[in-house]
Amino acid sequence: MTRQVHEVMTERPVAVEKLTSLAEAARLMRDAGIGDVLVVDEGRLRGILTDRDLVIRGVAENRDPGETTVHSVCSTELVTVRPGDDVDHAVDLMRRHALRRLPVATEDGELVGVVTLGDLAVEQDPGSALAAISAAEPDS
Fold it and tell me: What is the structure's pLDDT at 67?
């Protein structure tokens, strides 16, 4: 029997309002030991900001991290899954769109989690190197 996304996702993902500065988002990512934050506007998902976005669209473009908002550099063309979707569907979406993270939202757009490549590695191949890396505590 195929498992559902809600069984493997990370609940309560770190989210920031769209006017949050890049500096604040970077501190949140550092403190939580994560590589992304979800960008919301009044509780609705509007984008995803990754550590790569910070570097490529922020630092490399000489943007002021204290003045630049997350919404101005985040990825806004999102692919999402629902909590009740099959894990195989999430894997297929990640493969087709070359994604490492998928926000999980309900039908009415409420953000409830994120499923990552690491979550799926632990679920589908717990003995793999990627699963071991994903399960390890972050290096500080």
Answer: 94
Cβ atoms of 18 and 38 within 8 Å: the answer is no
In this structure, the chain runs to a length of 140
Low-confidence ranges of the chain (pLDDT < 70): 1, 122-140
How many Å apart are CA 53 and CA 70, to the nearest integer?
9
How high is the pLDDT of residue 12? 84
pLDDT of residue 122: 63
Give residue 129's pLDDT: 47
Distances (CA, A) of 104 to 5, 67, 68, 75: 8, 29, 26, 16
Tokens of 25: 């988002």
CB environment 54-70: b (16+ within 10 A), e (fewer)? beebbeeeebebeebbb
Average model confidence (pLDDT) across the chain: 85
Q: Letter for the amino acid at 70? A: V
Long-range interactions of 122-127: CB distance < 8 A, separation 24+ = 122/8, 123/3, 123/7, 123/8, 123/87, 124/87, 124/91
